[in-house]
Write a structure and sequence with these properties.
The structure is a single chain. With 226 residues, the protein is of the alpha/beta class. The protein contains seven helices and ten strands. The strands form two sheets. The protein has a six-stranded mixed β-sheet with strand order 6-7-8-3-9-10. Strand 7, helix 6 and strand 8 form a beta-alpha-beta unit. The longest helix has 18 residues. The two termini are 29 Å apart.
């Protein structure tokens, strides 16, 4: 099998229902999807369509009411939380709309953290290298509050790619940025994704951004549209 034909992410029968007062609110219904290694896939839909909930379930950050998710050959909901965290640490990167940087750590320390948690002896050198790749070689010692939104998202990208993930999940990565900074971040996401050979699964409401991915999955009222 060609490595590019390998399924790295698959979901079967995913459903998510939550309590809303005295009734049940169905967020996702009967979601089936597969992503092959090296693909760039956009999940798109209107607000409330369930796209961010689906991404969180695919990443193992939320649990479905029904269904299963395999990431890199592991059924993640048969793993305990420690095992899921270990899998994410080795194989998965995340980029969020709100950056999710630790305010008490510098740019360099934020990027080093996942590498240090993984026991990497080269955490600092690897972090310096990737921060240089995203154009922040002169900002290593700056704290998040002293960085612009675009710079903070560059740090978040560097952190996500620092572990050389097989799979990158991005949830509205340009949602908190102005148009110019957003375009620069999008270009960087795809440049890094190609350079590292990562599989990309991105949630966005931006049709133009989605069109840059090889495949678009459109959610309507919690279902994948035909």
């Amino acid at each position: 099998m060609n490595n590019n034909d390998k399924t790295i992410l698959s979901a079967r029968g995913i459903g998510k229902t939550v309590k809303s007062g005295d009734s049940d609110l169905v967020i996702l219904r009967e979601i089936d999807l597969s992503v092959t290694a090296g693909e760039a896939v956009a999940i798109i839909g209107a607000s409330g369509s369930g796209k961010s909930t689906l991404l969180a379930i695919l990443a193992g950050l939320d649990t479905p009411t029904v269904g299963s998710v395999d990431v890199d050959g592991a059924d993640i909901f048969r793993l305990d939380e420690d095992q899921r965290a270990e899998l994410r640490g080795k194989s998965v990167g995340f980029v969020f709309q709100s950056f999710q940087l630790l305010p008490s750590l510098t740019a360099l320390e934020n990027v080093m953290l996942p590498l240090e948690l993984a026991g990497r002896a080269d955490a600092e050198s690897q972090s310096r290298e990737i921060l240089s790749k995203v154009g922040l070689a002169e900002r290593l010692s700056h704290y998040p509050k002293h960085l612009s939104g675009g710079e903070q998202q560059r740090v978040a990208l560097a952190r996500a790619f620092s572990v050389r993930p097989k799979l990158l999940f991005a949830d509205e990565p340009t949602g908190s940025l102005d148009a110019e900074a957003g375009k620069a971040i999008v270009d960087l996401v795809f440049e890094l994704n190609k350079g590292f050979g990562t599989t990309l699964v991105m949630v966005t409401h931006d049709e133009h951004l989605a069109q840059r991915c090889a495949r678009i999955i459109r959610l309507v009222a919690g279902r994948i549209a035909a």
